[in-house]
Write a structure and sequence with these properties.
It contains 8 helices and 11 strands. It is an alpha/beta fold.
């Protein structure tokens, strides 16, 4: 899962980012409001940690833009503005949680885990069709025959993204932004290679789940009615 931190205190942002990376999250940082809003509107983040007092555009304005653009990312406000009026304003504009500074880093991790667990994960697994992705063991398991195979690194991140967005067309740009990061210079062949590896592993466990290529559009995960050959 991918998280965006919008925080102008660089040392604080990096502290939070490094801690969340240890929890296996993919983390990007924006150090001012304008860049943070631009990145948030790309709609590739599961959660945004957002300061209020930011250069160029403040956090409340960013919240309003996210709501106006129907961005579904969870938002945790992380700010020195801890008065009840500030909290109520943040919640009214769409914030999901609010952590005033100073804070303990473990509290931030717990709040992040809680928000993402509510939204995405039940018992550390994701299911689609006849497969289960175990987020702890990183195994793909066929529910019908209990066959399983391990999947790691970019293959795991790609499959997790597809399984969280089944039956939806995902463009190459969306996939690169989500899995490789907004500043990635990865080339198209990388994506095709990793998708080929995933398809082979799905076939090895006799799954009917497919990731189809759609010309000039992108890719879509769906369940095939055909028997696995």
């Amino acid at each position: 899962m991918r998280i965006l931190i919008v925080e102008d205190e660089k040392s604080l942002a990096e502290l939070v980012a490094n801690r969340l990376k240890k929890e296996k999250y993919i983390v990007d940082i924006s150090f001012d409001g304008e860049e943070g809003l631009y990145n948030a509107l790309m709609d590739v983040y599961d959660l945004i940690i957002l300061d209020i007092m930011l250069p160029n555009i403040n956090g409340i304005q960013i919240l309003k833009e996210l709501k106006d653009n129907n961005i579904k990312s969870k938002v945790i406000m992380l700010t020195a503005k801890g008065e009840i009026e500030d909290k109520l304003l943040g919640f009214s504009e769409g914030a999901n949680d609010y952590i005033p500074k100073p804070f303990h880093i473990d509290e931030v991790v717990a709040r992040v885990n809680a928000q993402l667990r509510i939204e995405k994960v039940k018992n550390n697994t994701i299911e689609f069709g006849d497969i289960i992705l175990d987020l702890k063991s990183t195994n793909i398991i066929n529910k019908n025959n209990n066959e399983k195979i391990n999947i790691i690194n970019k293959e795991f991140q790609l499959l997790e993204y597809f399984m969280n967005n089944p039956n939806q067309v995902l463009s190459k740009e969306m996939i690169y932004d989500k899995v490789w990061g907004i500043d990635s210079e990865s080339i198209s062949n990388n994506l095709e290679a990793y998708l080929s590896f995933i398809r082979k592993k799905l076939k090895l466990i006799n799954s009917k789940v497919q990731i189809k290529s759609l010309r000039n559009l992108g890719y879509k995960m769906e369940l095939s009615d055909e028997k696995v050959k």
